[in-house]
Design brief:
The structure holds two protein chains of two kinds. By secondary structure, chain A is mainly α. Chain A contains 15 helices and no strands. In chain A, helix 3 crosses helix 14, helix 4 runs parallel beside helix 7 and helix 8 crosses helix 15. By secondary structure, chain B is an all-alpha fold. Helix content of chain B is 72%, strand content 0%. Chain B is built from 14 helices and no strands. The chains are: A mainly alpha, B mainly alpha.
C-alpha cells in the first residue's frame, strides 16, 4: 500500500516542465484559441486576488457599490497604516512568525532524521512502523481533534503557543518527503562513507543533509506556508487575545460587529496576510512544486 | 560478503563480525533516528486516535465526568436528525465537489502540459489559490458573491441573468457556492499531481497513436487516461478524504448556514463540542463516524484499484 500511495509521480529531482503531449506546434489559429482559453481561465483564477488588492486601497464605502467599481476612484494607501493601529496586527504577525519558524525547524530536523532511519537503515519492524505513518493519510484531523484537545487540556497545554508547535511539528509529511528523496541517493554512497569509518549519524549529517538541499528547501517552504495559513488549530487552541495568529486575528476582525463593515480595511488585512506567502511562493516556486509532486501531499 | 568488504578497512573492526550484533546495532541506530519524530507523532496523532474510540463511549462534557455509557452515544446519534442532516450534506458536498474538481484539474493539467510561451505563468496562477490563506480567500469570496451588490452577480446581471442566485445567503445556493469556492481553491493542487503523472507517460506512445491515425480525443482516451491510472487513484483517495473532512471553508463562508443548509459532519462535531454543548463524548461518537467513512472509502478505493490492476 505504501508504494502505491506514495509514488504518484516520478523520481525526485527531475524538473516538471517537459511537454509530453503535442509533438508538433499547433497552427496559428489553434495557438491563438489556446491562449485565449488560458487567458480566460487565468482571469477567473486571479480575479479574487485582483479584487482583494483593488479593494484594499478603496474607501470602505466604495467596496460595495452599484455599479461595481473595478478600479478605485482614489487610492487610500493610508489603509495600510490604519490596519496596524486599528487591530493588533503586529502581535498577530509576531506570533505567527514565531510558530512558523519553530514548527518548520522541528519538522525539518525530526523529519529528515526519521526519514534516514526509514530509507537507509534496515531493521526488523521498520516497514510496519512506516505503515503506521502512511495510514494516517486516511485519518482526517477533524476526526480526532476532540480527543486530542481533551488530552492537551489534561496536561494544561491548551491556550499556549506550544500546543500549535506540537500539533504541527511532528507530521508524517516531512518524513514522507525526505524518505522519498533519500531513496534516490545511491546506496553505494553511504556504503563508501561507512567504509571510511563514518557512523550512521555522521552519514546523515555529512553526506545526506548536504545532498538533500532541494528536498529540505521544499519541506521548509511547505511547512512554513502551512503553519502560517493554519486556521483550525489556532481556532481550537488559542483563546487569549495576545496569542492569536494572523488568521485568527483577521477572522475576528472580520466578524467583530465593530469592524465588520470596514470592508476596505478587511481587504487590507487580507492582502497583508497573503503577501508574505506570495513572496515566498514566487521566490521558491520550483521547490513547492517538486515537493508536492514528489509526495503528492502537503502537511 | 560482509567480511570480505570490511576486512581491509580499519576502524570498522566491530562491524559485522557476527550477525546478531549487527542486527541489534542496526535496530538501535534505526530507532534512534526515528524516535524524535515518532515520539511526537505517537503522542500527538496515534494516542488521540486511540483515545477517540474510548471517548466515544463516555459522557464526557464540560463538567468533566466521563463515565462509560456503552453505546448510548451511538443510539442517540441514530435518532439525531441534525446528525443525519450533516451526514447527507457532507455527501452532497462530496458528490458534486469530487467529480467537478477531478474534471477541472485534469483538464487544466492536459491544457498546461505543453510547450507554450508563458505556460509557467498559467501554472502559477492555477496553483496560487491553494497556497493562500483560507481566511483571506473566504473574506474576498463573501464580498464577491454578495447577492445585491457583489461583482459576481453584477456580471451575471450584465449578461442577462435577471434573478442571479443568492449564494451564501440562500439555503438552496449556499452549498453550490461553497463547492464552487472549494473547487477553485483545490484544483491547482490536483492539477499539479496530474501534471506530474503526465510526465511519466512515455512520449513515444503518443507518437505511435498519431501514426496509427488517432486524433487528439482518441489519444486522450486511449493513452492519457490509462497512463494516469496510478495518479488518478492517488488523487481520488486524497480528494475523497479532503472532501469528507471539509470544514474551514464552510466555517468561514457560511458557518453552516443559512439555517443548517451547509452544516457538514466536521462542523457538527465542532458545534457539539465547542460551539454550544461541550459534549465531548457525544461529538467523539460523531467523529468515529467521520473516521469510519474516510477509512472505509480509502480501503474500498484501494481494493478497486488493485482489482483493476490484475
Amino acid at each position: 500500500m505504501s508504494t502505491t500511495l506514495l509514488s504518484p509521480g516520478r523520481p525526485a529531482g527531475t524538473t516538471l516542465p517537459r511537454p509530453a503531449d503535442e509533438p508538433r506546434p499547433g497552427l496559428p489559429v489553434r495557438r491563438f484559441l489556446r491562449y485565449a482559453a488560458l487567458a480566460v481561465a487565468a482571469a477567473a483564477l486571479l480575479l479574487p486576488f485582483y479584487w482583494m488588492v483593488v479593494s484594499s486601497v478603496k474607501r470602505d464605502s466604495e467596496v460595495f457599490t452599484v455599479p461595481v467599481q473595478w478600479w478605485p476612484e482614489s487610492f487610500h494607501w493610508s489603509n495600510y497604516v490604519d490596519i496596524f493601529t486599528e487591530s493588533n496586527l503586529t502581535t498577530w504577525i509576531g506570533n505567527t512568525l514565531f510558530l512558523s519558524v519553530v514548527v518548520t525547524f522541528l519538522q525539518v530536523l525530526t523529519g529528515s532524521f526519521a526519514a534516514y532511519g526509514f530509507a537507509k537503515v534496515r531493521f526488523p519492524g521498520r516497514d510496519v512502523l512506516f505503515l503506521a505513518y502512511v495510514a494516517t493519510i486516511a485519518v482526517p484531523w477533524q476526526s480526532y481533534m476532540i480527543p486530542q484537545y481533551v488530552l492537551f487540556s489534561k496536561v494544561h497545554l491548551t491556550d499556549t503557543l506550544w500546543s500549535i508547535v506540537l500539533l504541527q511539528a511532528f507530521g508524517a509529511f516531512g518524513v514522507f518527503l525526505m524518505k522519498q528523496f533519500y531513496e534516490t541517493i545511491p546506496e553505494e554512497l553511504s556504503e563508501a562513507a561507512r567504509l571510511d569509518g563514518l557512523s550512521e549519524y555522521g552519514i546523515w549529517a555529512r553526506v545526506m543533509l548536504p545532498l538533500s538541499k532541494p528536498a529540505i528547501a521544499s519541506l521548509t517552504l511547505l511547512t512554513f506556508v502551512n503553519t502560517w495559513n493554519d486556521y483550525l488549530g489556532p481556532l481550537l487552541y488559542l483563546r487569549q487575545r495576545d496569542l492569536w495568529t494572523i488568521q485568527i486575528g483577521l477572522q475576528t476582525f472580520i466578524s467583530d460587529p465593530n469592524t465588520a463593515e470596514r470592508w476596505a480595511l478587511i481587504m487590507t488585512g487580507s492582502v497583508l496576510s497573503v503577501l508574505p506567502i506570495a513572496v515566498i511562493f514566487l521566490a521558491g516556486q520550483r521547490f513547492f512544486i517538486e515537493g508536492i509532486a514528489n509526495t503528492g501531499l502537503k502537511g | 560478503m560482509a567480511t570480505m568488504v570490511e576486512a581491509p578497512s580499519p576502524g570498522t573492526d566491530l562491524r559485522g563480525r557476527r550477525r546478531r550484533p549487527l542486527a541489534l546495532r542496526n535496530t538501535a541506530a534505526g530507532w534512534s533516528f526515528i524516535l524524535p519524530n515518532f515520539v511526537g507523532f505517537a503522542l500527538i496523532t496515534m494516542v488521540p486516535v486511540g483515545y477517540l474510540f474510548y471517548l466515544a463511549f463516555t459522557n464526557l462534557n464540560v463538567f468533566g465526568n466521563g463515565t462509560w455509557v456503552g453505546t448510548k452515544n451511538f443510539t442517540r446519534l441514530w435518532h439525531d436528525s441534525s446528525f443525519w442532516e450533516s451526514f447527507w450534506h457532507t455527501f452532497y458536498f462530496s458528490a458534486v465537489h469530487i467529480p467537478l474538481t477531478l474534471v477541472v484539474s485534469l483538464g487544466l493539467a492536459v491544457l498546461l502540459n505543453r510547450k507554450l510561451k508563458g505556460i509557467a505563468f498559467f501554472r502559477t496562477a492555477a496553483f496560487f489559490p491553494y497556497i493562500t490563506s483560507i481566511v483571506a480567500l473566504c473574506a474576498v469570496w463573501n464580498i464577491l458573491l454578495s447577492p445585491d451588490s457583489g461583482p459576481v452577480n453584477a456580471v451575471l446581471r450584465a449578461i442577462g441573468v435577471d434573478n442571479p442566485p443568492g449564494w451564501t445567503v440562500s439555503a438552496d445556493w449556499s452549498m453550490p457556492a461553497v463547492i464552487l469556492v472549494a473547487t477553485w481553491r483545490w484544483m491547482g493542487y490536483y492539477m499539479l499531481l496530474f501534471l506530474a503523472g503526465l510526465q511519466t507517460i512515455p512520449p513515444h506512445l503518443y507518437e505511435a497513436a498519431t501514426v496509427d491515425g488517432a486524433n487528439a480525443w482518441h489519444r486522450f482516451w486511449h493513452v492519457t487516461i490509462p497512463g494516469l491510472r496510478h495518479t488518478t487513484f492517488f488523487v481520488l483517495v486524497i480528494m475523497t478524504i479532503n472532501s469528507f473532512k471539509v470544514f474551514d471553508i464552510i466555517l468561514l463562508m457560511t458557518n453552516g448556514g443559512p439555517g443548517t443548509s451547509t452544516e457538514v459532519l466536521s462542523q457538527y462535531i465542532w458545534r457539539k463540542s465547542f460551539g454550544e454543548g461541550f459534549e465531548f463524548g457525544y461529538s467523539s461518537a460523531i467523529s468515529v463516524v467521520l473516521f469510519g467513512i474516510c477509512f472505509l472509502l480509502t480501503i474500498v478505493q484501494y481494493l478497486l484499484n488493485r482489482r483493476g490492476e490484475s
